[in-house]
Amino acid sequence: LWNSQLSDWIISWKAEYTYLENRHEPLIYTSYYYDNSDQGWIEEYKTEYTYDENGNLIMAIYYKDSNLPEWSGSYKATANEWLEMEKDEYTYDATGRQTMHITYYWITGQWTESAKSEYGYDANGKEILNIAYQWDEVTSAWIGSERIENVYDAEGFITTYIYSPWDDIISEFV
């Protein structure tokens, strides 16, 4: 952060990555802010990544420090306890193309579904279908949100893009 009054850079934030051995995929990402009063780094957020045997990201879990407030601002860390916030899970087909992404939030001590996307591909590996859903806590079921279909020409360019929102009244994409 540049301080124009001091004409100097002020240390304010940093990120650290831990990587898999002999790989480029991160295992852990941790962010810190600098506490000027204590002259020290305070942990803010952490993400832990999990990969399958092909190197595809299959899960990311996001944490916040237990003393971080719900709003942006400084705080005093004392416990260094990581609290779960969000989790993303990914699945892939045999060729390594992502077929699903599900997001969960940590609510009252358990992972609760939030959003899901499913993907479909043509024979050339082009994404032709993307269907998004939201979790309905009342019915404990996925409810459609939007559907996107792509049509490609012989050169691989999108020639048709079809967007279909979910209609709650008739319970289908329109």
By helix and strand content, what is the structural category? mainly beta
Give the strand tally: 13
Largest sheet entry:
11 strands, antiparallel
| Spatial arrangement of strands, main beta sheet | 3-4-5-6-7-8-9-10-11-12-13
> What low-confidence regions span 5 or more consecutive residues with pLDDT below 50?
71-77
Rounded Rg = 21 Å
> Looking at the structure, what is the overall shape?
extended
Structure overview:
This protein has strands spanning 2-3, 8-9, 13-19, 26-35, 40-51, 57-65, 82-92, 98-107, 110-121, 127-136, 141-152, 158-167, 172-173. Helix content is 0%, strand content 63%. It has 174 residues and is an all-beta fold. The strands form 2 sheets. An 11-stranded antiparallel sheet has the order 3-4-5-6-7-8-9-10-11-12-13, with no helix packed on it.
Task: Compose a concise summary of this entry.
The chain is mostly beta strands.
List keywords for this structure.
174 residues, mainly beta, 11-stranded antiparallel sheet, two-stranded antiparallel sheet, 13 strands
Question: Layout of SSEs?
Answer:
Layout: E1 2-3, E2 8-9, E3 13-19, E4 26-35, E5 40-51, E6 57-65, E7 82-92, E8 98-107, E9 110-121, E10 127-136, E11 141-152, E12 158-167, E13 172-173
